Amino acid sequence: MIHRKQSGYDAFKCIADKCPKSCCEGWQIMIDDDSIDRYQNESGHFGQRLLESINFTEQCFLQNNSRCAMLNDNGLCDLHSSLGEESLCYTCKVFPRHVEEFQDIREYSLSLACPEFVRMLMEPSYRFDIIENEDDLLDDPDEFEDYDFILFDKLNFARDKMLHIAKNNNRPLWERLNQTASMALALQECYDQGDIFEMDSISSVAYSNSDNIKSTLDYSIKSMDVLINMEVLEESWRDSIISAQKYWKRNSNDTQICKSAMFPDSNTEFIFQKIFESLLYTYFCGAVYDGQIYARAMIAVQSTRWLMMLYYANHCKDLNSIIYLYSREVEHSDLNVDALITFFESEL
Ligand code: SF4
To answer: How far apart are CA 111 and CA 131, in angstroms?
Structure first.
């Protein structure tokens, strides 16, 4: 089996009670079957507290004021403190780690919804890389019965090219995003025409600095409607998107503002580049299961554009929280990811 890990994956450490937006707050924490069985067998006073903290119908932890019922007033998990890390359910044990399975390949990434990972990513010394190693473990072949390994091979090859484009900081990130979008469109056309062997020949189209800034910006402003209409964890998030959209509607004809937002200084641009690389890595090859090549590339492209615009509309402040809130609200809802895929698919 081949294991690919995003850089920082093994080094990541949860900061628990120091976390500004704990993953134990705001969303429903689902409990896997094995953990539910273990929790039901827990006895004594703590066992009682545990049972009273679980919604067995929905198989998730109950919440008090949007906080997990096992989270104490000091911001620490009572389950972790009383029974140790091993007692945590799968969701809590792995977050913010994420695994995508592709037959004999496992791809491990870190979620941008975790403030501590975002802090790591924003460090100038953090560089997005994929570290690969191999072991002798084999999968159950029945699990991937309908798996199209030729398509995966083509997607993997295309993603390598896209990640190469993403790293080319001789060109502004804005151009690299446009290049990736146009490449994804061409790949989708090959796939839709049943010509997947042609996919290897698709390369990026060169863009110049000034190409499409106004039209792409107008598209990005209009398409914020998708974000506004999504399900939200906190209404304040929807309010912030509405306010950013208004800002951009007011300023979309101001060339200086547009250029400052889309061509930030190199340190800030490098952060957006790493977000783009992380999202491409996480989403793109999943097209082997649904054929949504363009939409999956666009999740990475358009999320990066929106984040650049949200940051600028927020007076270039609080980039860390803009990133993790975006990821919590958009990426961590299957409904919202489906809404994005449907939206980008409708452009084809
Ligand atoms: S969001 Fe990240 S740092 Fe915060 S509590 Fe969860 S895993 Fe830890």
So the answer is: 17
Name the residue at shortest CA distance from atom 8 of ligand 1.
14
Phi–psi pair at 59, nearest 5 degrees? 55, 55
Q: Distance (Å, rounded) from C-alpha 89 to C-alpha 79?
A: 10
For ligand 1, pick from 9, 23, 90 the residue to mutate: most ligand atoms within 8 Å of CB: 23
Confidence of residue 192 (pLDDT cuts 50, 70, 90): very high
Phi and psi based region of residue 88 (left: phi greater than 0; alpha: psi -120 to 50; beta: remaining)? beta
Length of the chain equals 348
Q: What does the domain layout of the chain look like in residue ranges? A: 24-94, 149-345
Pairing of strands 105-110, 63-64: unpaired
80: nearest Cα among 18, 20, 10, 14: 14
Tokens 């802090």 -> residue:
119
Measured CA to CA, the distance from residue 121 to residue 279 in angstroms comes to: 13
Looking at 111-234, which runs of residues are DSSP E strands? Answer: 130-134
User: Which run of H or E residues covers position 2?
Assistant: strand 2-6
Residue 158 Cα, ligand 1 centroid: separation in angstroms? 33
* DSSP character at residue 25: B
Range in 108-117, 139-148, 282-291 with the lowest mean pLDDT: 139-148
pLDDT of 167-187, one tens digit each?
999 999 999 999 999 999 999
- Beta carbons within 8 Å of 136's beta carbon, 6+ residues apart: 1
